[in-house]
Amino acid sequence: MAGKRQALSSVGGPVEARGDRAFRFPLVEAMRAQDESRDALGLTHGFHAYPARMHPAIARVILEELSLGPGSEVLDPFCGSGTVAVEALVGGWRSLGSDIDPLALRLARVKTDRRGPKARARFLDRLGAVAAASTRRVRERVDVRARLQAKERSWYEVHVLKELAGLLEEIRAVRDERDRLALEMVFSAIVIKFSRQRSETSARTSVKRVRKGLVTEFFVRKGEELANAWAELSAAIPSPHHAPRFVLSDARTLPHTLAGEYRCDLVLSSPPYGGTYDYLHHHARRHAWLGINPKQLRDKEIGARRHLSQGPRARAKAEPSSLARWDSQNRAVLESIAELLRPEGVAVLLVGDAEVAGQRVAADAQLERLAPDAELVVVAVASQARPDWRGGRPRSEHLVALRRSG
């Protein structure tokens, strides 16, 4: 790969870049934009927590720099909470997002919903009505049963469990589907906060003092936050615009799911960082409350820590098979991307170094090694060190640009 390695200063530390200058520049600019606006999410991006989502600034810069003009098509095969879709909507792109988790698609649809003043006012009226009914239930001690298994119920204090269950019953009674689905995502946004789960990405428990009525108060605050975010989004969307589309699919079988002549100009996505997260576990509280069957996520989640990271006793035996699995998963993703790209299309992937059976796997090097199997070639890379959540040596995060080699 041509190009001299360079280090550039940014708020988050030096960015090392190599490869084709035409692609190296936007990758570095995207990394720097992420650091310079780390807390400035804006639009609907900050409404709902979602582990390891792409920073909006990365998506914004890449979409601006690589646009081929109005109506260019971008695909995000790991759309998560819809970061790329929101930025594509504002940037005038056509977009398609896919994910294996139905929760992700529900959330992405709500976050990209264009709501004018009347629709926002109607939503706020329904939010208020649901909250008033929930407050009345709490005050009058209305008996309600959470439709959860015993193990799932154990994550909540009894009075919190009842308030959440009553709140969800009132949401489900809303007849307007559009508002009901949005209210469910507001509910989803507060579920973990009021559970005994310590954080979004930790399965450990912690003691939380929650007074009666606080759940409903936070529900209202989060709903109002969504309405305000919709107003900001609506003001930013150009006219005419292209509404995003979403499909439920494993990224590796997306060409089969689309079953047609779909092609895109750009793939922009952040695939899972190997051995780092378990979305099945991170969203377990939400899946249970919302009645989402996570079977596909359980069976086919890519890069899951439960599949790739092993305890010390198992590492020696598991290492070859775990590394082979991680290679196989990424090879299949690259093959899918290559099939969906137009001949002159570009793929930009935000990837992090993996932790597989106790071994660090450099994500950029892995993509360079596997890309030829999918008839792709890495044309540029921008890399920046990130703190290791375990307190060990830093991992690196990389923006990698690929093109078809044929």
From TrEMBL:
<dbReference type="GO" id="GO:0030488">
    <property type="term" value="P:tRNA methylation"/>
</dbReference>
<dbReference type="Pfam" id="PF01170">
    <property type="entry name" value="UPF0020"/>
</dbReference>
<keyword id="KW-0808">Transferase</keyword>
<keyword id="KW-0489">Methyltransferase</keyword>
<dbReference type="InterPro" id="IPR029063">
    <property type="entry name" value="SAM-dependent_MTases_sf"/>
</dbReference>
<feature type="domain" description="Ribosomal RNA large subunit methyltransferase K/L-like methyltransferase">
    <location>
        <begin position="49"/>
        <end position="89"/>
    </location>
</feature>
<dbReference type="InterPro" id="IPR000241">
    <property type="entry name" value="RlmKL-like_Mtase"/>
</dbReference>
<protein>
    <submittedName>
        <fullName>DNA methylase</fullName>
    </submittedName>
</protein>
<dbReference type="GO" id="GO:0016423">
    <property type="term" value="F:tRNA (guanine) methyltransferase activity"/>
</dbReference>
